[in-house]
Amino acid sequence: MKVRIQAEPFELPFDTRTTALVIIDMQRDFVLPGGFGEKLGNDTSLLLAAVEPTRLVLEQARRIGMFVIHTREGHRPDLSDCPPAKLTRGGVTFIGEPSPMGRILVRGEQGHDIIHQLYPLAGEPVIDKPGKGSFHATDLHQILTNRDIKTLIVCGVTLEVCVHTTVREANDRGYECVVLSDCVASYFPEFQRVGLEMIKAQGAIFGWVSDSERFMKATNV
Length: 221
Ligand code: C5J
Fold this sequence. Notes:
Low-confidence stretches: none
Mean pLDDT: 97
Bound molecules: dicarbonimidic diamide
Number of strands: 10
Distance between the termini: 9 Å
Shape: globular
């Protein structure tokens, strides 16, 4: 289905058959108290605003048969894939430490998994990534290439870290990325505002910005 989405800095045509919805790191460790995000000193409740709009977009993507991919940031239980520079910052270590949701950012733990509202269905690939970018040390590019995917609709957290890194990586690999502003969130309102500006500046320097409502409108045909 060929559609057009209203976006900034300008409308973008795309084909739903060569487009993937990518939902980045909607894990308990980031969006709920007790996990990695809170340990870093953040108010995790700010991220919850993105959950319901993303759920509606996910529902719509599934309804129209759009390819859906989820990512999770985290590490092997022995932390062998966690660079020392990431493990301990300023002499403080959180990754791998115990929390009310299990060991922080460790695969297989409760905190590492995706929140129930956005839980992947069977057949939707889940990319386990050790870094902030979803292409680093993963098979995401291979999976997208095999499906002939050209456009990414991007949701998730946090905007200025894993969403930005992933969109920049995707742009360099030739994908057109549309970030849905109400389906991404940051612990810092200022970063949310500026992060979105940065994506669409200079004639869509590395992507487009739209929102869940305009996604619905574009795909309700
Ligand atoms: C962070 C992420 N913020 N998923 N990870 O450390 O954005």
